[in-house]
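User: My collaborator sent over this chain with a note saying "see what the structure looks like." That's all I know about it. Can you take a look?
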Amino acid sequence: MKAVIYCRVSTKKNTQETSLERQEIELVKLARDHQYEIEEIIKDQASGFELDRPGVLKLLDLVKDESIEAVLIQDETRIGRGNAKIALIHCLLKEGVKIISQTHSGELHLSESDSMVINIVSMVEEYQRKLHNLKIKRGMKRAVENGFQPHKNLKNKGNVDGRERIEVPVGEIVRLRRNELTFAEIAATLRGFGYDVSKATVHRRYKEYVASLDDA
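Assistant: Without extra context I'll predict from the sequence alone. Here is the result:
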């Protein structure tokens, strides 16, 4: 089982370096105690109220990899403080990774108020997804009523000039990503259109698209 260790101190003062080192040592031991393979150790020196932290952005990229199962932290304040903490915990839980806290010697225990806020955010997002899927369904229905025959655009469905099912519509991935859908949600949406794709494939194709823009 692969895990990422995340350490943070609030400032770049030299005196804080000791705290970072101590967090790393303690979390490496915690990972071993829970039999996690450490994929990466990330360190941030920034305020917990800020979202724009190099380490946090790297962490969020890593947890989108299906092989990462847990994020190890000293305690919930290391992830962040205030609204930033709630937002980041929500993002991590939404990706299906466990948050392992040294303070709790296991999975992070949220306060009742924090749990309530995260549940509300999740509920709102679920209804947003439902509304989005209803719009897609209505759009597909209208297209079919206007003569669109998606099954004929697949090679293994009768059209020798059509595309293979494994082909992924990168343009649609980009559009859905810009609408802030997760890679898991995008994969589920595409599977509804007949594309046999996983979250990892969607993530990889999106990264290839971004890399092609950087090279242009």
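A starting point for your reply to your collaborator: The CA atoms of residues 5 and 41 lie 5 Å apart.
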